[in-house]
Amino acid sequence: MDPKVDDFISNAKKWQPEMEQLRQLLLDCGLTEEFKWRTPCYSLQRNNVVLIGSFKAFCTLSFFKGVLLQDTNNLLIKPGENSQSVRFFKFTSLQEITDQKSIIKNYIYEAIEIEKAGLKVNLKSNSELKLVPELQNTLDKNSNLKKAFEALTPGRQRGYNLYISSSKNPKTRDTRIEKYIPRILDGKGINDCVCGLSKKMPRCDGSHKYI
Predict the structure, then answer these.
(1) Which of 96, 10, 84, 27 is nearest to 58 (CA)?
(2) pTM
(3) Phi and psi (nearest 5°) for 138?
(4) HEC string for 9-52
(5) Which pLDDT belongs to residue 79?
(6) Which domains does the chain have, with CATH numbers?
(7) Facing residues of 194 across strands?
(8) String of b and e for 102-140 (b: at least 16 CB within 10 Å)?
(9) What angle do CA 69, 36, 187 make, to 5 degrees?
(10) Distance between CA atoms of residues 89 and 100, nearest Å
(11) What does the pLDDT look like over 157-211, one tens digit per residue?
């Protein structure tokens, strides 16, 4: 048991009993507990398997390779339209977890077997990423920007595309594009710190100045 997870749960404003229950289930299944991305993470032989998440309206149990789970009970949720791998349980009460304890464990054990078998998620290639029209038009008009964008990792490209497309207002999408052009030209993702690491990654402690 990682003491950082103790602190995370004890300092949480909501869902403490629920997260404690989920934590115990994961430990009972033999996973290794760590604290990554500012949240409890459970791994098998250093390979990430599950995350516990705490949000305002619910808490979650997220499977890194959830798309490979059979989900026979039809309980898993897709985080977003463009999510290729992660699937999660959403809980709004301790009773929900207690009532489904055996089912949840079955999902965890299945995720463990997927990891043991070395199965991989067949992610869509970068060429299959459909950019929001405003971003595509901007790239087509600026060859340097397009070259810089195409040099970004697929994850960074998806990050920009998701953020820009999340607004329904075309003017807002254009504003977001203009704001992040310097970052794209500098080879940085939308979540990158000036140190070059993602502020979501555990290697960056968040103390750096963000662009």
Answers:
(1) 96
(2) 0.64
(3) -65, -40
(4) HHCCCCCHHHHHHHHHHHHHCCCEEEEECCEEEEEECCEEEEEE
(5) 81
(6) 3-116 (3.90.1150.200), 124-211 (no CATH)
(7) none
(8) eebebbbebbbebbeeeeeeeeeeeeeeebbebbeebbe
(9) 95
(10) 11
(11) 888 998 998 888 999 999 999 999 999 999 998 887 644 444 443 334 444 443 3
Alpha carbon 9 to chain centroid distance?
19
Indicate the SS3 state at residue 130.
Answer: coil
Q: Is 93 helix (H, G, I), strand (E, B) or coil?
A: coil
The H-assigned helical ranges of the chain are 3-10, 16-28, 94-99, 101-116, 133-141, 143-151, 154-165, 170-185
Ranges of residues in the chain whose predicted pLDDT is under 70: 81-82, 124-128, 193-211
And the tokens for 104? 């949840």
**Average pLDDT, whole number, for the chain?**
87
Q: How far is 32 from 35, CA to CA, in rounded Å?
A: 10
Tokens matching residue 35:
């604290």
pLDDT of residue 61: 96
